[in-house]
Amino acid sequence: MTTQHMTYYHQEITQIEKTCYSNKRHLQTVIGLRHYINNNFDKELSLSLLSNIRFTSKFHLLRLFKRYYGQTPKQYHIDKRIEQAKLLLTKGAAVTETCYTLGFDSPSSFSTLFKSRVGLTPTEFQKRATFTKSVKI
């Protein structure tokens, strides 16, 4: 590729970055928040706590996170917990143990949320995962 083409593409990329990611502080805020959620998904994370951690207002944080990730911090937090629950259940952890390990209040609320997100209860999911493993072996 010629230098002229590289310059054109560099200009285009720079323009896209300015349009899509116009404020680096905003980007740093949401990336930092996402990292915090990823590292603390097993804890109760309120919007007030998250906004204090990132030194911004709750409503601004909600708008930013949704703008960049397409979901609220709470939705993202729940998705991370469900993702981890699926992993633990696949490895054979008990439903109750998984529930409390991930910071859910009760096995019934965990099961209800899990079923609404996955389409199966945790027990059904675990049975299918175990069956799938045994069929592959």
Task: List key phrases describing it.
137 residues; mainly alpha; Arc Repressor Mutant, subunit A; 8 helices; 77% helix; elongated
| Name of the CATH architecture | Orthogonal Bundle
Approximate strand percentage: under 5%
Count of runs of 4 or more consecutive helical residues: 8
Number of domains in the coordinates? 1
The CATH topology, please? Answer: Arc Repressor Mutant, subunit A
Number of extended strands: 0
Q: N-to-C terminal Cα separation, in Å? A: 49 Å
CATH superfamily: Homeodomain-like
Mean pLDDT: 86
| Overall 3D form | elongated
Q: What's the gyration radius in Å?
A: 20 Å
Largest sheet: none
Structural class: mainly alpha
Helix content: over 70%
Order of helices and strands: HHHHHHHH
Low-confidence stretches: none
CATH class: Mainly Alpha
InterPro entries: Homeodomain-like_sf, HTH_AraC, HTH_AraC-typ_CS, Tscrpt_reg_AraC-type_HTH
Pfam family, one: HTH_18
Protein name: Helix-turn-helix transcriptional regulator
Keywords: DNA-binding, Transcription, Transcription regulation
